[in-house]
Amino acid sequence: MKVKSLSHSTGKIVSLLDRGSSFAVDLDAVAEAELLGGGEDIVCSKELYAPAVKNIAKKIMGFFGCDYGVELKIEHDIPEGVGLGDMEAVSTAAMLSVVGALARHHGSINELKIDKYLKEQFVVIDDKVVDKRKLIEICSGNDFDRMCAAACGGFIVADNKNKEILRRGEMETLHAVIVIPDADKVGFNPLLSNESEIAWQEALKGNLYSAMKLNNLVGGRKIHKEIMEKMLESGALTASVSGGGPGMIGLVRDENKIEGIVHAVEGHGEVFVKKTANEGARILEKPRKIIKVSEFLELDGAGEFRYL
Length: 308
Known about the structure:
Elements: E1 2-15, E2 19-38, E3 42-44, H1 50-64, E4 68-76, H2 86-106, E5 107-113, E6 119-125, E7 128-129, H3 132-139, H4 144-152, E8 155-159, E9 164-169, E10 175-181, H5 193-205, H6 208-219, H7 222-233, E11 238-241, E12 248-252, H8 258-265, E13 269-275, E14 282-283, E15 290-292, H9 293-296
Parallel strand pairs: 3-4, 5-15
Antiparallel strand pairs: 1-2, 1-14, 2-4, 2-8, 5-6, 6-7, 8-9, 10-12, 10-13, 11-12
């Protein structure tokens, strides 16, 4: 039985060596998982992502005490290797598709109805509710903040070393003007660690737009600072190089300003426009059950389930 899952791309707010802050963008990755016989290999259709995805599948099998082989197919519309979180989006989608495939054999995929407007997908395997946060902890490395943002939507501020979410919430529904300049990647500069710490503190306070601008001033190359200046002059709220780059994202509230911003930066490279995303990653299956909170709390593992 094949099971598909969908996850989102991410942009970076702040990048430090062991801490980070990210937000979800509506560029998507879809993974399809099919369980094979016990002891068979784990295979992936995309060579670029195969090592990471196969490692995730092995970790999930070990966590649930299973030894299935897995065939994984990956599709996405995220530019590769330019700082827009394609690896984390694919990894998150692969994680959920493998868990979904296990649930089809050993449990169920369900929906928790919290209130009239709020609902949360949850999975039961071997009669126990699966904690999605625990899965992210198992499957992530120093990309914990990006995987959380890809999985949960909105923004995340996290201690990646200790895999702890320090702050999270929904983003404004904003337009994301994405520029991919012809430039080298960027990295953390230890000579500017104090300045990076200022950007981090702004993110912790929830001042995300200031944090992004500071992150770009500290970590971006000359071209990134030029692009940010043009974006801000044309009406963007904020802008920053995303992760290791070279891609960068400007966030825009006023739709009428998008054309001017795009025109101002289109000479620097490929430009396209998406939106921030607050909806989390999900398994693309109809729920077997839709249950209310009172019924959910009676399930084994519900007390360990962490809402993200």
